[in-house]
From TrEMBL, chain A:
InterPro entries: ExoRNase_PH_dom1, ExoRNase_PH_dom2, ExoRNase_PH_dom2_sf, Exosome_comp_Rrp42_subfam, PNPase/RNase_PH_dom_sf, Ribosomal_Su5_D2-typ_SF
Organism: Aquila chrysaetos chrysaetos
Similarity section: Belongs to the RNase PH family.
CC annotations in GO: cytoplasmic exosome (RNase complex); cytosol; nuclear exosome (RNase complex); nucleolus
Assembly and interaction partners: Component of the RNA exosome core complex (Exo-9), composed of EXOSC1, EXOSC2, EXOSC3, EXOSC4, EXOSC5, EXOSC6, EXOSC7, EXOSC8 and EXOSC9; within the complex interacts with EXOSC2 and EXOSC4. The catalytically inactive RNA exosome core complex (Exo-9) associates with the catalytic subunit EXOSC10/RRP6. Exo-9 may associate with DIS3 to form the nucleolar exosome complex, or DIS3L to form the cytoplasmic exosome complex. Exo-9 is formed by a hexameric base ring consisting of the heterodimers EXOSC4-EXOSC9, EXOSC5-EXOSC8 and EXOSC6-EXOSC7, and a cap ring consisting of EXOSC1, EXOSC2 and EXOSC3.
Protein name: Exosome component 7
Pfam families xrefs: RNase_PH (PF01138), RNase_PH_C (PF03725)
Subcellular location: Cytoplasm; Nucleus, Nucleolus
Taxonomy of the source species: Eukaryota, Metazoa, Chordata, Craniata, Vertebrata
SUPFAM superfamilies cross-referenced by the UniProt entry: Ribonuclease PH domain 2-like, Ribosomal protein S5 domain 2-like
Residue ranges occupied by any Exoribonuclease phosphorolytic domain in the UniProt entry: 32-166, 196-261
Top-level taxon of the source organism: Eukaryota
Keyword Nucleus carried by entry: yes
Keywords from the named record: Acetylation, Cytoplasm, Exosome, Nucleus, RNA-binding, rRNA processing
Main location: cytoplasm
Automatic annotation (TrEMBL), chain B:
Organism listed in the record: Aquila chrysaetos chrysaetos
Protein name (Swiss-Prot/TrEMBL): Exosome complex component RRP41
InterPro entries linked to this entry: ExoRNase_PH_dom1 (IPR001247), ExoRNase_PH_dom2 (IPR015847), ExoRNase_PH_dom2_sf (IPR036345), PNPase/RNase_PH_dom_sf (IPR027408), Ribosomal_Su5_D2-typ_SF (IPR020568), RNase_PH (IPR050080)
Encoding gene per record: EXOSC4
Family matches, as Pfam families: RNase_PH, RNase_PH_C
Entry GO MF terms: mRNA 3'-UTR AU-rich region binding
Family recorded in the similarity comment: Belongs to the RNase PH family.
GO cellular component, one term: cytosol
Alphabetical list of PANTHER family matching this protein: EXOSOME COMPLEX COMPONENT, EXOSOME COMPLEX COMPONENT RRP41
């Protein structure tokens, strides 16, 4: 992970401040940084979103392609995650340097989305055992400013909300061979229901308290963090402890409670932005990286 | 022989442009705060991002440090969702490797590397959406990013592609025009001096036509230079206003 070098005095300053519920940028322990979310940034994808959380910049593109369903789930489509840590974020990610972090993030997302209720995979099925939609969710990490997992999960949810999958019809011949016909109208598409898509909340333990949305400096001071994925209803789909240090069980339960609370309000705020964008429709001014 | 659909009877291209017309260019410098220099450019539907780190100490092997000038290290990467058909890997294949070497060659010609001996300058180009002229957009974005980083250059590096439809040279090819199979010339120019930093031609082109196509590419690069210059001056105005000057 891109890291920043801090002196002992700086670390002490951050830790002591957090004990008093005061972080370096003036936030409280449960406040997120100012986030910018924009969908439909890349046009030749089925759906895309860009999230800028402080100095963390993520771009997610979803491409829907036709494939064969997995053997154990013949009447469902599936999601494939790929995370590219680009060298834009830090020179250490040049070449294959970012692969380790990328695989870790992708595996985390596979686990987060492994719950059956997260996304309705049956709606992605075209022909059981033969054809289904495969959603390739590609994450591009452009800038690392701390709290990667949260930002990426927000971007993934926004991109899935923005995804438009073309409607297909199956035509059967007399011989029984099936042909798939894509509708000609580009606006004739199915949308995904993202109400149950979870968002990740990372809680970093600094001193005796835990903070939400840690910056790079705060991550350098924290020994351990807990990553939980929360749905909009407050249900937990997965949990993971990260970091070199150890956590005691009481802290874990406390962090879980905070995480659920914060996660629910995060979902509400995100849904509000997405609905606003949706209501503007085609008249929305696309800013992207130019603003 | 170029396909006849490239240019209609009235002289318009598939996207409504005239043969010598460039696509709409929008650019912005200073996109990321953590990098030394960064820039974003949109040429029509092609979107490219460039980030510059440096000049800094050599990373990796110290033995590769050049005693009299800086080492320019480039990487060219295309987002997996950037092309119409999904790419398996963003970089690491032969094509992106070759383009990275070409970037290095182009920028070594322009950056005043003698001012920073024994150090390294990293230029990372990321193509977010590929719709023709990807490498050129990358070079233009990298020029702006190097300027944003404050690294002295001999001149702007402006790149543009050009092709041929029957007898008319076309400037700034889009993806369907590139795929049509006609000759394709990529030119990276240092506009003030007129020096060519990179010249690449693919597919067959008759020797007699080379001059016209080269001239069209040169004109396009000079037009691009005007746009990039405007962006840089606008950015300078913005930054000095922020500094309270």
């Amino acid at each position: 992970m891109a890291s920043v070098v801090l002196s002992e005095a700086e670390k002490l300053y951050i830790v002591h401040g957090i004990q008093e519920d005061l972080r370096v940028d003036g936030r409280g322990c449960e406040d997120y940084r100012c986030a910018e979310v924009e969908t439909d940034v890349v046009s030749n994808t089925s759906g895309s979103a860009r999230v800028k959380l402080g100095h963390t910049d993520i771009l997610v593109g979803v491409k829907a392609e036709m494939g064969t369903p997995k053997l154990e789930k013949p009447d469902e489509g599936y999601l494939e995650f790929f995370v590219d840590c680009s060298a834009n974020a830090t020179p250490e990610f040049e070449g294959r340097g970012g692969e380790e972090l990328g695989t870790e993030i992708a595996n985390t997302f596979y686990r987060v989305f492994s719950s059956e209720s997260s996304i309705d995979l049956k709606s992605l099925c075209i022909n059981p055992r033969e054809h289904c939609w495969v959603l390739y969710v590609d994450v591009l990490l452009l800038e690392c400013g701390g709290n990667l997992f949260d930002a990426i999960s927000i971007a993934v949810k926004a991109a899935l909300f923005n995804t438009r999958i073309p409607k297909v019809r199956i035509l059967e011949d007399e011989e029984g061979s099936k042909e798939i016909e894509l509708s000609d109208d580009p606006y004739d598409c199915i949308r995904l229901n993202v109400d149950d898509v979870p968002c990740i909340v990372t809680l970093s333990k600094i001193g005796y308290r835990h903070v939400v949305d840690a910056t790079l400096q705060e991550e350098a001071c924290s020994l351990a963090s807990l990553l939980i994925s929360v749905t909009s209803k407050g249900a937990l789909t997965s949990m993971k402890k990260m970091g070199k240090g150890s956590l005691d069980p009481e802290s874990i339960f406390e962090m879980m409670e905070t995480g659920r609370r914060v996660g629910k309000s995060l979902h509400i705020a995100l849904q509000k932005i997405l609905d606003e964008e949706e209501s503007l429709g085609t008249s929305r001014q696309k800013v992207g990286f130019l603003g | 022989m170029a396909a006849p659909e490239l240019l209609s009877d009235e002289g318009y291209r598939a996207d409504g442009r005239r043969p010598a017309e460039l696509r709409k260019i929008r650019a912005r410098m200073g996109v990321f705060a953590q990098a030394d220099g960064s820039a974003y450019i949109e040429q029509g539907n092609t979107k490219a991002l460039a980030v510059v780190y440096g000049p800094h100490e050599m990373r990796g092997s110290r033995s590769k440090a050049l005693p009299d000038r800086a080492l320019v290290n480039c990487q060219y990467s295309v987002a997996t969702f950037g092309t119409s058909e999904r790419r398996r890997r963003p970089r690491g294949d032969r094509q992106t490797g070759e383009l990275a070497l070409q970037l290095q060659q182009t920028f070594e010609a322009a950056i005043l590397t003698q001012l920073h001996p024994r150090s390294q300058i990293d230029i990372y180009v990321q193509i977010l959406q590929a719709d023709g002229g990807n490498y050129c957009a990358g070079v233009n974005a990298a020029t702006l990013a190097v300027m944003d980083a404050g690294i002295p250059m001999r001149d702007y590096v402006c790149a543009c592609s050009a092709g041929l439809a029957e007898d008319t040279p076309l400037a700034d090819l889009s993806s369907p025009e590139e795929a049509a199979g006609g000759p394709r010339l990529v030119l990276a120019l240092l506009p003030a001096s007129g020096q060519i930093a990179l010249l690449q031609l693919s597919a067959r082109l008759h020797q007699e036509r080379l001059e016209t196509v080269l001239e069209a590419a040169g004109q396009a690069c000079r037009a691009l230079h005007a746009v990039l210059d405007r962006v840089v001056r606008e950015r300078l105005r913005e930054v000095t206003a922020l500094l309270g000057d």
